[in-house]
Every structure is written in C-alpha cells, then in structure tokens.
Amino acid sequence: MSRTMQVTQRGVEQGRRSGRARRTAVRCGAVAAVLVAGVALVACEEPPPTASAGPSSPTPVRTGTPGPAAGTTPTQEPSGADADEPTPAPGPADLPAPAPGPAPAESAPTAPPEAVAPPAAVAPPVDAVPTLPLKDPLVERWDGVTPMVSTAPRSGTSLEDGDFIAQLHGVDLAARTVDVDIYILHTNEYADAWLEEHDPEQYAAIGFALNGYVRQNDVTRIRTLPLADDVRVTRFCFRPYGTSVDDPLTMEELPLDRWASLPAWGGLGSERCGAAEPGRGEDYWLDVRGGEVVQLVGQYYP
Prior knowledge:
Elements: E1 2-5, H1 9-18, E2 26-28, E3 31-36, E4 39-45, E5 162-172, E6 177-187, H2 188-198, H3 200-206, E7 213-216, E8 222-238, E9 249-254, H4 256-261, E10 283-289, E11 292-298
Parallel strand pairs: 8-11
Antiparallel strand pairs: 1-4, 2-3, 3-4, 5-6, 5-10, 6-7, 6-8, 8-9, 10-11
C-alpha cells in the first residue's frame, strides 16, 4: 500500500497530456521519489513486515524527500508552496492496544504462625536438694548435762528428714523395717520448764525434773519405718571396770543382723562393751533421710 502526495496538481496534468512523462524512481529505504514531467511526486512505501518475538508495532511514516540513492543524480527538492507538509506522528489513540499478558498468579493464603508454648519449668536435680548432715553415731546424743529438746514429727505414717528419738517396739530383719513410737525429749532446764507447766504438783514437790529429763509422749503411735541398705546401728555400753577414763559410758557399733537378734535386755553384764550376751536397749535416735532410717543410735537414761 502507498500514499502519494501531490506536490503540484498542474504539473501532473501537463505531464499526462504531453506524453512526455518520464519516471525515474529513486528508492532509499522505504521512500520512493517519482519524477513525472519534471514534477516530483513523493511516495512512502511501507517495508515488508519482519518477524519478531512480540506483538507488531506500527511503523512510523517518514515524510519529505529522501536522500539520493547510490548511483543516482540528486533531484532538486521543491520549495515554497510546493514543499510537502510533514505528516504528524501517530498519537496514543493511533497505537494498537497492547496484547493482554498472563494473569498474575494468585498467592496462596499464608497460614498463621503456630503458637510456641513457653518452656516448661525445669525442676532442680535431686542431688541439688540439700540434706541434713549426719552426726557421728559413735558419739552420745545426750550426755546427761546438755539442755536440749528433740524434734517433733509431723503427723503421718512416714517421716520427713530429721533426727527423732523413739522407743523401739520391734525389728523385722527380713523386711528390713523397725517399729517405733516417737516421743519428744526435754532435758535439764527445758525439762524443768516443761514439768512446771504441765505437772505443777510434781514440780512443786521436788522443784526439778527427776534425773534431768522428761519424755513427752502425748499419743502412742507405732510407725513402721524402712531401713536403708547401709544403715548403721550403735548401742551404748560401759567400759570394763578398772579402765582409767572419766566417763565409762561409750558407744559400740553392731552388725544389723546381730543387733536385730538381741533381746531388749540381756543378762548380767549385758550393758558392758563387748558382752557375750548384750541387750540392744529400747530408746534410739532415728536419723531419717529420704524416708529411710540411715542410723540407729542408742540413748542411755540414768
């Protein structure tokens, strides 16, 4: 398709009548100049379409007189009223609509983040729990002159950690248990104060606690307590006569099985250290740790 712009209408008509029309085409790119009887006609030809990856866009129309082609004689360009008027460039309305592209992909809904539970509190290791230190089982707990008040247990069949004094009622070696009745021991001035408050008649009669101690046992309650695997057992005894010591009373340790087989009170001389037929006695300190009796320490009363 070509579009011819008439430069001079009169020159065209004269060229047709005289038959002297002479055409010389000069091609330069997409523009051809036609000379008819000395009158220049300018025609713009569209170049053949070329393949492209995207949608085609309109080729801009070039106006005016093209430059001379190689090997041709330059032609005089018209001037004044015969000059071509420039063709306006295509505006936005003349451009083709862009081809629709692919629709944007819809993003999948994002799940809300899962709630993170706070870390659970960590309990301290068992080894970090402090325990009561154990006293030497070969040393007397009450020496007859030191004022003291023993620990009172809480209610219940088991015992918390502590050092308690009790009356021994039985030993089961096979079950490794002891049956005891715990009481509270008051000694020396503590015994006097307790006696004055709870038995004023006796206190008024003698004015002190007999032998320097009072065993308080308001309720008889037998508890069966387990023995630890490495339980230690000691009993009080008297050194042989003639021993050059100020205090003949001391403590000796016995194996559990032998101690369990002894009667409460033995024969003559059973309280001597190293006696052939000793007695185990009735009053013992119970050192309880972790719910088990770890030490049984005998107590002597005058």
